[in-house]
Amino acid sequence: MDFDDFDERPQDVAETTKNASGGIEGILRAFDKAWYVGRGRASRRMDLLGDYAGNELFLIDGESLFQAVLDDPLLALGRENDCSFQILHAYHTLERILSEYTTRSTNFEIVFFYENRHLTLRTGDDPFVVASRTLARTLLFKHILKLNLPVNSFRSLVDHRWKDYENEKKPMFILMNDGDFPDFQNPMSAHRVLAQRKFVSDLLGGSIAMALLKGAEYADSKIITFVYEPVRQGAGSIFPPLFLRALATVQKDLETILQEVMPKEADLLCSHLRDHDATVDIENAQDEFITLISKRLLSMEVPKSAQPILASLTFVNIVHFLQLPTLTVQDRSQPSISIKASASQNICKAFLAPLFFEATRLLATAPYRNLPYDFDGRVFLTSLVYLSQESSLDTKVLLGETLASRVSRIWGAARGEGNLTPTLVELPAVAPWLGRPTLPGAVQGPSAGQEPAEPLQLLPFTNSVLNKHLPSVSRPSSDLPNTPASPQDGQAAFMQFGREGTMFSDTKHWHNQKSILPPHLGGDVKEQGVTPWVASRRLRKQQQFMFNLQMQAATITGATGSALKQVVIPPAGSNAKVTKGTPALEKKPVVKPPPKSIKKDKPVKLSSKQLLLQKIQDQKLAEANDNSKVWWKEKLLVLEGMKLEARVQELGNLLRNKRSDEEMLKLEMELYQLHLEVQRWVQDSAPSSSETRDKYSLSIMRLIKKMLDRKVVTAASKEAITTILILFGFERYLEGLFDGVRILDGASPSFKFVKLMKTRAGKPTPVHEFIAIKEGPIEWQLRMFGEYMDRSMDSAYDRRVPFHPDAWQRRVLDCIDANHSMLVVAPTSAGKTFISFYAMEQILRSSDDDILVYVAPTKALVTQIAAEIYARFSKKLDSKTCWAIHTRDYRINDPQKCQILVTVPEVLSIMLLSPPLATVWTPKIKRIVLDEIHSIGHQEGGSVWEQILLLAPCPIIGLSATIGSPKIFNDWLEAVQTAHGFKHTFINHPHRYSHLRKFYYVLDDAPPEFTSLSSHEVTGRVRFVHPVSALAFGNATLPDDLSMEARDTLSLYRALVDVFGRGKGGMDKGELERLDPNVFFAGRKDLLRQKDILEYEAVLKHAVAGLLAGALGGEPQSDTKALPSSENLAFEVISRLQDPMLKKLGSKLDVIPERGLFMENLIHMLADLHAKNELPAILFNYDRSGCEIIGKAIREFLDDAETRYKQTSPSWQRKLAQWEVWKAGAKERERQAAERQKKRRPGKGDGDEAPDPGASSGTATWEQSFDPNQPLADFSFVDQKSSYAMSELDQDIQKLRWGGKVPEWAFDLLRRGIGVHHSGMNKGYRSLVEALFRRGFLRVVVATGTLALGINAPAKTTVFCGDSPYLTALEYRQCAGRAGRRGFDLLGNVIFYGFPMDRVQRLMVSKLPLLGGGFPVTSTLVLRLCNLLEESNHAPNVVKAIDALMSLPRVSFSSDVGRDYLVHHIQFSIEYLRRNGLLNEEGKPMNLFAVAGHLYYTEPSNLALVGLLRAGILHGICKGIQANTDLEDIRVEEAKRVYILLMAHLFGRKILPSSLSENEAELKGLTSKYPSKVVLPPMPEVARISLERQAKDILQVFVGYAKAFATSKSQTSSGNETLATLPLSGAWAPQDRDDDTDVECPKLTAFLRQASTRTTIRSPFVANSGLQDGDFTTVQELADTVRTDIHLNAHAIPCFDGILASAATLTRDRGTKTGNPRLKTPPPKLNGYLYDFYIHGQAKTIVNANGIRSGDLWYLFEDFRLTLLTVKSALEQLLVKASVEALSARNAKNKKPMKAKKRRVKGDWDDESSDDDSDDGIIGSALDTDTVVQSELGSQDETLLNTDLGEGTEAETFDDEMPGAQEDFKRPTGVADADWAVYRVVSSACKEFDLKARDMWA
Question: Which intervals hold domain Helicase C-terminal (predicted)?
Answer without folding.
Answer: 1261-1429
